[in-house]
Amino acid sequence: MENANRAVTLNELKAQAKSQYFNWLVALEKIRIIQQNEKVLEMMKKIEEVRYPYNQSQLSTVYRAEASIEKNRNMLFMPQSEIAKAKAYLNALMNRPGNAELQIDTVYEPRFVAAAFYDTASLATQRKDVLRMNESIHAMQLNIEAMKLERKPSFRIQYDHMSPLSSMMPKAFSVMGMVSIPIAPWSKKNVSVGNQIHAVQYPGNGTGTCCHAPGDSGHVVRHAGRNSNDAAAHSIHRRKSDTGIAKTFDASFITYQENKLTLTVVLDNWDALNMMRLDVLDEKQKLYQMIVDYEKELFR
User: Fold this and answer.
1) Nearest to residue 196, comparing CAs of 148, 132, 149, 136?
2) Are 124 and 215 spatial neighbours (Cβ–Cβ below 8 Å)?
3) Is the pTM of this model over 0.70?
4) Strands (DSSP E) along 168-219, which ranges?
5) What pLDDT digit, counting tens, does each position of 247-289 carry?
6) Mean predicted confidence (pLDDT) in 100-109
7) Domain boundaries, the chain
8) Looking at the domain 2-127+215-298, which fold is it?
9) What is the DSSP string of 45-75?
């Protein structure tokens, strides 16, 4: 049972480490996008500063460009805090100081890999929480067997030997035979342990409906189906953000450079593109978390 408990704990720690690692990857992508946005905004600000002395732009647009730059810089705090949190967590898992220097592989991209087949028997042998439950039931059954033995009469023999310190005192020997006969063979403790075994063998939530039991292949299949759908939706969402809105912003920025469009329209398109990219990264983070949960269910 202790080995099963260790395996379950190790699986949970691995899932937490994967989750923090994936959060770190997504945070780095957010920082990369924010830094790219700052370069574009700095270019817009310089264009407005050059046009302003020639009455080609307004002073309010220069201030708005500066405000957009500061707003973009403030967005860095959130992913930076996520990286600091993930670094401290991973260092703690490795028994290192929380602020120790740590670098991760930023090239790796997690992908959802479904199991070849889903079988309740194979899941039961693969998952250590099922093994822990079986060992717990086995231990309770052994306790009941021990309690059944207590219902039977027991016979004991006790032999004592005493040698006094003084030679004037005689040595003493005693032999006693004891018989214990249980008066009430049943007990509340026995019934309680029996009820615990039935409760483990037939899990329920107390309302007459059966809850999810470890090793349920249907639960794993639902995880796999949801992950596949989310992966497809994320791919479609990403393509849309990289095509439609990105092309709209590029076209408006080219027109702005030709002094045929105001900065307000360009910033609105930039806001839409920036929000779309960040939403895509948020969806990617959710997808990564679902992958972690799926692999945790399979004890990978």
Assistant:
1) 136
2) yes
3) no
4) 172-180
5) 888 888 888 888 888 888 888 888 888 888 888 899 889 889 9
6) 88
7) 2-127+215-298
8) Outer membrane efflux proteins (OEP) (1.20.1600)
9) HHHHHHHGGGTSS-HHHHHHHHHHHHHHHHT
